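Appendix B, Record 12. Input sequence as logged:
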Amino acid sequence: MVTSIIALLFLTLAVAGASAVFGRRSEDCWPVCCCAVGCLLYGFYCLGAVRLGLILLCAGMVLLFLAGWKKSGSLRSYLRGFFTPGTAAYLCFCLIFLVFFSGNVVSRHDELRLWGAVPKAIHETGKIQLGEDSPIFSIMQSYPPGLPLIGYYFTAFSREFAEGGLFVGYACMALSFFIPAFSRWQWKHWRLLAPAGLVVLMTPFVFTTHLEDTAMFGMTLFVDPLLGIAAGYAFYLAGHHPARSWFHLLAFSLSLGMLCLLKDTGLLFAAAALLTALLLERKSWKRFLFPAAVLAISTLSWKLLLRLYEVHVLVPLKMHTLSAQAISNVLRALASANVLIYKLPLGFFLSFVFVSMVLWLLYYLAFRLQREQSRAEAAAVAVGILLSTVAFIYGYALIYGETLESYARYMETALLELFTCILLTALPEIVEGRLIAWSLGWKKGVSAAVLSGCLLVGVGLTALWRAVFTVYPELPAADRDAAQIRSAVENDLEPGQTGWIYLVMAGDGWENSFYHHRIFFDLISSNLGIRNGLAETQVVIPGLENPTEVWAQELADGCDYVYLLTVEDALLPVFDELSDDPAQEHGLYRVEKTDSAYGVSLQQVPSPPTE
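Logged structural output:
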């Protein structure tokens, strides 16, 4: 929790300083500063100097705070300008996240090898996680590092890696995009702040309540919900004249850059938002060269790094032709699950269509509430959202037409994109509308009761969310085995040596994959390297002419140790040719270079004595 508190403290200093320096409400500065953290750390990450980047970033935040203090003239006026209703709500959100999410652990398949593993590897090594020198699964290295860098920022202020900081950072980043919705609220509207804050707090939770892959907000690290929220924020900015000031142009540019760094598909939303803004402000097209440059640099620099490190993209973004079988699989999957667990048991497709229709109706009502945006501007934003969503579903999501394992999460992206834009449009207007003017006449006692009730509901629902989430049941056993492996290797190594461990999991790949992945996650450190392929044993593959030779060559390529999580019969004859010691479950073996036919042998490493 301490590292998350320090990270939030520096972020608060930056927001306070930016608010005073740019003359903006602090609500407008939260998403800008969050995006700036990710984008600036990315620049240093590409250079392999992310730790230096963190130091310079924190120093810059302090200087920005001091510059804002000087411009404000006095600390009292400085704090008064910073502590606005939206900022108060956001800090309450952060407090809730600190209390309920700091104890979370990484326990999902893709998190253990990607969303949680990459920030841990950055935390432990400070290096870019690409190429053979990185312990990260090669099939996972092509994902852009935007979310891992945010996770790194929230865990960097502790020598020991704090898994809970990843979840706190994720939630704080996501909710920051909603806070500009309070930019026109004053303290006289405090009676409405609690119910509005409750709606904002619950939004990402409600749209991640499906049970397909338990991608629930706050307890998992899947990037898809965050991608949708960030896209909605970018489209909101696109429809409200981002070229009217340099602050708004900077906010728009950073949002586009962050979208591209969150996931490859973020490019679709970023490009659509940029084209929407350019269409609405054609006379100021020269100003949009800056956000276009940020978009291009963030995308092309990552593609260049992938090429330099010879990393192949696992799931490329492309337009493609779907086969009849793929279309059939898509339709069957769409009719088999619900997007929201509290809805009637309609098929997923009907549920998604129904929720989308409701959201588009809300979008129309939100447009009718406001005064700033014209009909043409609202229509342009709607078309941009719709076209980018269609391109996203067709160009990326349907690539999974054979399995659709993550399709529900992709639909979260589309729904959250639209609803974020709705909230950002409606909440600034709602405090001035006639429909709720009567609420300002509430008696203070009733208002205080409503405020307390909303706070209790928010805390209670968050606590319920935390209780519903089931952590991987074999987590303690995997952590124990990882600790034993680490201890045995460190005892076997000479001082200053680095050992490379080849994790082998023989047996049913799916049955043991979570156990294998948690051990892999635990072993990520600065002095232990990990060679990893797929979860299944690479040796036991039908049709190999000489599996022993194939495996021996792989072990000779920079592997110092082999760990057997389980042993299956097909592995035994291969193992017997390389070792005089028996193959044992949870056994650790040292790879020795020899003059034998295979060039390597395996010698069992004794387990260290337990205390």
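The chain has a mean pLDDT of 81.
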